[in-house]
Amino acid sequence: MNRCISLLAPIFVSISFSVNAFADFQNPHPNVDFKVFQFPRDAMPRIDGDTSDWEIVPDDYTYGTGLLNDTEDGHGVEIDREDLDVKVTVGWVKGMNRLYFLYEAHDDFWDFERTNPRGYLNDIFEIAVDGDRSGGPFILNPKILPPDNKDQTSPEFLENHIRFAGVHAQNYHIYTPPVNNAWVLVWGAQPWIGEFPYSNYAFSHNLKHGESGKLILECWITPFDYAPFDRPEDAVETELEVDMEIGLSWSILDFDGDKRDGHYNLAHDVQMVKDASYLLPFRLAPIEPSLQPDLKAEWTFKILNVDAGKVSFHDESIGQITSWKWDFGDGTTSNEQNPIHDFGPGVRKMITLEVTGPKGSSKRTRYWDVITK
């Protein structure tokens, strides 16, 4: 294995698939607006197993048992909620490339005392995510390795696993709950994505093996457009932005003693666990209007030419705005919403944007932020 790994050059491998990769998958929920709740920065959830942080999330961001389908073990969509009943809520915070999950599950038989080399004899909450929706297989690549290849020591298998598995989309098998165990089995070649600072988790439960009860899991994960097996420093995180769509789905592997009782999944196709073409489009929502201030001035900037001191400014204020006034700190002003200004060399010590609207006015001043040569 070491000989095989040593041959791998530390380069960015661009893996992309045609848009047609999504053509064969029919979304089983065409009337559901799957979306990810945006937490305000001053109200992001603390990962401690306490669900009170999530009370600000409206109900239409939560997805329950009624959307699942047991596609392997015979239950179909007729799921007995006395047997298994789950709720999943997904969130994000603008400026942080993280997806937050709240998983609440009631099971009539929690199974978490046994495991095997494949990690499947434990109740599992499985998340698959494709941050840039590139689609296509991301565990076994049929162009490289036949899916029925079982020789995990062959050079072909190792090459496929290291260069391909989990590189452009990721799969997390989360043990519910973990007992004498890691919290997650990363089905891919990047075990580091299951560790802080790339993910974090907390559980709340009073469960005993073989008994019924409720489990709460809070966690966040980082989606990656490119995740090499041994070089987290070269990884490319998915840049999360308002209104972009990501590929996402989950499944629940429910074990009851000596048998698996179900494989319930949101995509209604178990291919979702290894092929991102079967993931559902989740939209990253803006902050709910009820959680926004009536009016707040905010702005960002980009230096276009550092030698000439040319800077563009972008208004990111919140609320209904009728006028803008920029004071550039050099005796000049602008009433444009997104002006470009020539400063010349030096540190601009104080730049202010004042916005006004029906709800009043708001100012945002930044000191020593804009520096040109």
- Count of all domains: 2
Mean pLDDT: 89
Total DSSP E strands: 24
* 3D shape: globular
CATH architecture of the largest domain: Sandwich
State the name of the first-level CATH class of the largest domain: Mainly Beta
Alpha carbon gap, first and last residue = 51 Å
In the CATH scheme, what's the topology name of the largest domain? Immunoglobulin-like
Which parts are unreliable, with pLDDT below 50 for 5 consecutive residues or more? 1-20
List the total number of helices.
2
Break the fold down into its secondary structure elements and pairings.
Layout: H1 2-6, E1 35-38, E2 62-64, E3 69-70, E4 84-93, E5 96-107, E6 124-130, H2 155-164, E7 170-175, E8 184-186, E9 199-205, E10 213-221, E11 224-226, E12 236-237, E13 245-256, E14 259-265, E15 280-284, E16 295-296, E17 299-305, E18 310-315, E19 318-319, E20 323-327, E21 333-334, E22 340-342, E23 346-357, E24 360-372
Parallel strand pairs: 1-4, 1-15
Antiparallel strand pairs: 2-4, 3-14, 4-5, 5-10, 6-7, 6-13, 7-8, 9-10, 11-12, 13-14, 13-15, 16-19, 17-18, 18-22, 20-21, 20-23, 23-24
